[in-house]
Amino acid sequence: MNEPVKLRLVEVKNGKYKLEYPNLSVPIEINEHLFQKFLSSSEFMIVGDSHKFPVLRSSFNSVAKHHMSA
To answer: pTM for this one?
Structure first.
C-alpha cells in the first residue's frame, strides 16, 4: 500500500481550509465538506498545529486507528 500524501493545514478562515500540498508553491483552499473527506481518507494525512487547529485533534485518533487497522 502507498504512503498517504502529507498535507499541512496552514489556515482556517471563513469556513475555508488552506492546505500546503507537496510540490505546490501556493496552498490549496477547500471547503468544510471536502476537508472532512480529506480527513477521513486513507490517501491523505493532514498535519498541523493541533493547538491552533483543534479540528486536527479529533481527526488524528480516527485516522490513526484507520491506519493501524489497515
So the answer is: 0.73
